[in-house]
Each structure stands twice: as C-alpha cells, then as structure tokens.
Amino acid sequence: MTSTEERLPVHQPRLKLAELAPEAYKAMIRLDAATRRGVEPVLLHLVKIRASQINHCAFCIDMHTKDALAAGETVERIVQLSAWEESKHFYTAKETAALELTEAITVLTDGFVPDEVYDRVAPQFDEVELAHLIAAITTINAWNRFAVSTRMVAGEYQPGDH
Known about the structure:
Elements: H1 17-20, H2 22-36, H3 41-54, H4 58-70, H5 75-80, H6 93-106, H7 115-121, H8 127-150
Helix pairs in contact: 2-8, 3-4, 3-6, 3-8, 6-7, 6-8
C-alpha cells in the first residue's frame, strides 16, 4: 500500500444533501429501513455492494463493504462480486438470483427488467421477499445517485456510523 504522501488529494463534496434537503434525506433513511426489514442481511449486503460497483459509487462501496465485513462476510466473496457470473460457486442460488436482479434493475439500458431475468429470479423468493428485494435494489440505486452526484467522499466511514 502506498503512503499517504503518494496518494492523490481527497476531493471535496459538492454539497451536503442531508443538511440542504433534510426531509428528503430522512425519507430515504426511512425507506432504507423499511426495505431492510424484508431482505436477509447477507443478501442485502451483496446487493448494496454490487449496485454500488455498477454505479461507480466509491462512498457506497466503502460503506457497504465495511458493513458486510463487520457482519461477518468474507473478503473472498466481496472481491468476487464484480465477476459473480464467473464465480457463482462462491454464492447460493438465491444470492446469484438477487445479483442478477440487481444488475437488471440497476442497468436499465433496455428500459425494463427483461422477463427472462424476472422468470429466473422469482422462483428463488416468495412474493414478499421479492417485493422487498426490488425495493432494496431501488433504494440503493437512489442512495448511489445521491452520493455520486454530490461527490460524497469514500474512506471515512466506519460501521455503526449510520
């Protein structure tokens, strides 16, 4: 690892959304809490990390990776997330289904989640779980967009900060 003298300087955030739009921020916190209740914690960590990778959200990758590690997730499974399709043997069928759905919802290049993806994913969950999973994926994508657009700074987060 390089010393701090060799690193590039930390960028400054553009604005502090939580302070400037507190009601919207508080609503997101409530939404996040509501979706979290219906998704298995291990699965939720994987989904949050993967969506954040796709969205290039350094702040959220930092946060959710640290949370996952603190909750007992392995470094190996986290490292393999960016190539999960080639590393399916690290994950359960339910986890790979959630990751596939995460990618389909996060990258809406076709303007919708393809039926074949939904048809592969749906049998892995009951309807309540699936509804909460879709809400959780949508929520992390919204958080990613808040963090990326305001340039939240990665690296300072410690588990338990939120």
